[in-house]
Every structure is written in structure tokens, then in C-alpha cells.
Amino acid sequence: ADPEAGRSLAAQCRTCHGLDGIARIPIAPHLAGENRIYIETQLKAFRSGKREHEMMSVIARDLSDEEISHLAAWYESIEITATMPE
Amino acid sequence: ADPEAGRSLAAQCRTCHGLDGIARIPIAPHLAGENRIYIETQLKAFRSGKREHEMMSVIARDLSDEEISHLAAWYESIEITATMPE
């Protein structure tokens, strides 16, 4: 899995998820720093129909296993911090 | 929606998702800073069966709309940063 290849593939994801994985629209999740296993599982679920979403089902349908692994590696490579309110 | 009420409710989520929303296990997503609309949509999907997961389907089944709104408000209240690799 090659995060750099994932970075260029993620051009198609950035409109909703952001290239840095911080969602640009409220109905899309953040992907920044997500574990690659989670991302691969969800993309394959959208591809197989186990999980459904009007946009993601269409986008995932044409993704190969290799492309999925690159995308997952890209988003996992983004460093995140989380700060709870006092 | 009350983030503080959500914080106490999130005690049942922290084993996998972390109280700060950074996942503790690779198959669970981060929830930190997620938009409350996304979280509410997913919890209601798990509750209705539109989305399925062996653990989440069971956990979500007993959540009320109000509890879901509190949990979503809690995780949304966590501040996150994302830093892309050079």
C-alpha cells in the first residue's frame, strides 16, 4: 500500500472528505488518521453493497483492491490530535 | 443535545472508540470531532438495521433519540487537528 499513490487517488475524495481527511460536508465522516483496516473494510463494504450510500456505492464500485489499499494508507498517514473540552 | 450528558453516556463507547474519540482498536473508527449529523445518522442506521455491525447493532438498539443526540454532541465537541505528511 502506497500512501503517495493514495494521495493522488484521494483527489476524487477531497470534495467531501478533504485531502487532509477533515470532512467538508456534515454528512461525510472525517478520514484523517483512520486506521487503514477500518477504511479498507468500509470501502469494500460499499463496493460489495454490504453498506450502502448513494455516492459511496457508486465511487467504490470501480475501485480495485490495490487502489483501496493506497487510499487507506494515505488517510492513515495523516497525523491527528484530539483535545477534549474541559 | 448536551455534550456533558454525552460524555457520561460515552463511557460505554470508550473501550473501542476512546473517550476522546481516538479509536483504541483498528476496526473501530475515530469519532473525535465528527459532525453530529454524521454520528446521529450512523447510530440511527445501526439502530434501524440499515447499517449492520455485530457490536454496534446491539449497542445502538437500546439508544433513544435523545441519548443519540447527546453522544453526537459530545464527540463533535472534541477539537481535532490533522497534519498531512510532507
Describe this structure in words.
Chain A has 5 helices and 1 strand; from the N terminus they run αααααβ. In chain A, helix 1 packs across helix 5. The first copy, chain A, has one domain (3-76): Cytochrome c-like domain (Cytochrome Bc1 Complex, Chain D, domain 2, Orthogonal Bundle), CATH 1.10.760.10. Chain A has 86 residues and is mainly alpha-helical. The radius of gyration of chain A is 13 Å and the shape is globular. The N and C termini of chain A lie far apart (39 Å). Chain A binds chain B through residues 3, 18-23, 26-30, 32-38, 41, 50-52, 77-85, and chain B through 3, 18-23, 26-30, 32-38, 41, 50-52, 77-85. Strand 1 (79-83) of chain A pairs antiparallel with strand 1 of chain B.
Output the keywords.
homodimer; Cytochrome Bc1 Complex, Chain D, domain 2; mainly alpha; about 90 residues; about 50% helix
Topology, number of strands of chain A: 1
Biggest interface, chains and residue tallies = A-B, 32 and 32 residues
The global form of chain A is globular
Low-confidence stretches of chain A: none
The CATH superfamily of chain A is known as Cytochrome c-like domain
Strand content of chain A: 5-15%
- What is the CATH third-level topology name of chain A? Cytochrome Bc1 Complex, Chain D, domain 2
Largest sheet data of chain A:
none
Q: What is the typical, i.e. mean, pLDDT of chain A?
A: 97
Helical percent range of chain A?
40-55%
Quaternary? homodimer
Order of helices and strands of chain A: HHHHHE
Structural class based on helices, strands and sheet pairing of chain A: mainly alpha
- CA-based gyration radius of chain A: 13 Å
What is the C-level CATH assignment of chain A? Mainly Alpha
> How many discrete domains of chain A?
1
CA-to-CA gap between the ends of chain A? Answer: 39 Å
Helix tally of chain A?
Answer: 5
